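Continued from yesterday's entry.
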Amino acid sequence: MPNTTIASGNAAFATILCLCLSGVSTAQQVLLNEFRADAGERWIELHNRGSGPADLSQWSLHYTTRSAGMARNHWWPFPAGTTLAAGAFLRVHWYQVAPSTAPVAGELWTGTSPYGFLFGLGGSTLRDDRGALGLLRSQQNEDMNDPTIVEDWVGWGEHSFSYEWMAVAAGRWQPGRATPSPAPTTSTARNAATIGTVTFADQQWFVDNTPTPLQPNIDGALVESYGTPCALPGHHLLGAPVLRAIQQPLLGSAQFGLAVDHTTGIYGEFVLVGFSAAAAPPGLPSILPPYAGQACQERIDTLQMPVLWLLSTQIIATPIPLSLAGLPPSAFGIELHVQALVLDLLPMAYPPYQGLSNALRLVIGQ
């Protein structure tokens, strides 16, 4: 366990979250989050998952299509002063005229006048069968062949649209890939919890039968158990220790936590909780000593386990409070792998440990 810190209290969990947050890319905080493109509604939703406001005043949306007899690329500039607050959503009604009533917060309309779009190319209606959208950090014509301005990209129905090569060069998309086309009354939405966990960017998107403009698409939270709990011969537990989540890991939840079942709480044993960034890769050697010809197997990657949390056990079940209150929006989608070891700290305690729990894969949602 190189570079591992043993801590007590909720400070351990705060430490591991800070370490995970330090690995979250700051290069892509504003996302294309959802779009709908049928006769009922045609809009594009953005989400700022960063911890600070994003100034979109010099940014643009790019829509590319293969409509016969029409220009196939359209750029629309965000108006001056457009700012997206941390954690906020913005919906752009594409190729639609703004209503005569007062503007709604978080809503923009591109209009249909060719003068409202860039480079004199005008706009065209979003199509649900095929197309691609780009979020670009520029409104300048001379930048429109520069991959470094591509903040985000999504293509649906088909692939290899104009300017897709820029998104590929920027690492925002992979060639030959496309999301499914949305059906009428549905949207194509993004599960931000999968960013960085799937092989291809299009796998982050799904057809949503219940569109949620200006709201999270899904909560993104995940609790998944893997591995089998075990206890060594001669243990004094009430059974093999089982690790479970008390609630779903949602941002802002002060009640979230874990628990280890089958602890006795009367023999002076402790629970050592390990937080890792990943499951154990095949062939990773155990760091636990075998006993009586038996051994329990760590299921989390002990080489990526910078923090261990030591707690005294309680009778029947030992709670592990892990408050998610006060975390920044960028904590959304963080993945943790957790496993618990029950042991005695007395000098002559034997067996060398009492048991090892199953592992949990946790993804923080909202």
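--- second protein ---
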Amino acid sequence: MIKKYLLAPGPTQVPPEVLLRMAQPIIHHRSPDFTPVMEEVKEGLKWLFQTQNDVLIMASSGTGAMEGSISNFMSPGDKVITVNGGKFGERWGKICKAFGVNATEIKVEWGEAVDPAVIADLLKKDPSVKGVYVQASETSTGVAHDVKIIGEIVSRYPNTIFVVDAITALGVFDIKPDEWGIDILITGSQKALMLPPGLAFASVSDKAWRMNESAKCSRFYIDFKKERENLKKSTSAYTPAVSLIIGLQYVLRTLKEEGLENIFARHSLLAQATREGVKGFGLELLPKTSPSNAVTAVKAPEGFDGQQIYKRLRERYGITAAGGQDHLKGKIFRISHMGYCDKFDVITAIAGVEMVLKEMGYHGELGSGLKRAEEIFIKNI
């Protein structure tokens, strides 16, 4: 028997209590039974997003909210700026192309954070740009972009919205959309929200809603305005993912019990221990600066295949992590420490990495990374 450990950056682990909640008999989404669930969830999401704005709920993966943040606020021919610092930053450009939106792409070396000054310079040269699109946490590289500084820059332009993909950031580290000038902030259920895939969320500012009135891109199912109108009545435009929303109700209660500051501190500690643990075993991180507290991207040692490390972790020890994507495939592997994750998940991950690499002939000393991680945890009890 091999016990399974899910330490990939999505889907992440789901607490047993949440699974049990979602296993209850289904209820009808237009019945009085579901209304109080939606009422509690929509207020809880405002708390989690740290916003006074409505937080829309859609039956979709996070990519649906990414698409909606373009199609609901732009018209064909509009100009936007996108940051491509990884696989998901690249996706912004692909979505823009699908809707005829002209994207100026800032290409950032995968593993580095975007320089906000580059965005400031582009906006200064062309203030007709309608939107700036970036990740708070680039899942494919383990890098966090400085969305606070970028928000300060974009907020100087009254006809430009700032859109942040926080799919692996919300509920991991502090993001204040109302204070930082983030007009649209999106996330998905299968990351720090500790749920299965299937829900996407988006908070939308008044500034963005004004742009929605004149946006002409085609849309039908992912219609933010329609969802907002229905949310006011504590319902949804179309059939919602009822069981997932019932699970979300329970998740939000548990997160409130923990408190935002404690949630952010927990993720920070787990990330620090993971980073120091792999470095203690002689490995290098991919991010040169600004590593994300959601996921750690680790370089495969010279002469070792990162895909094989990822594969052996799963096959030999039941640890599902993640490999690299596109040109990073075989060069890195990634370990998640967000959501339903604690100290011993990190210990398990580092032990698995040490054992796999030792089996593959790596020179590191067994236990050296574990020792480093354990010392960090003990120091912070």
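The chain has two domains: 5-10+259-379, 16-257. The chain has a mean pLDDT of 97. Will compare against the first tomorrow.
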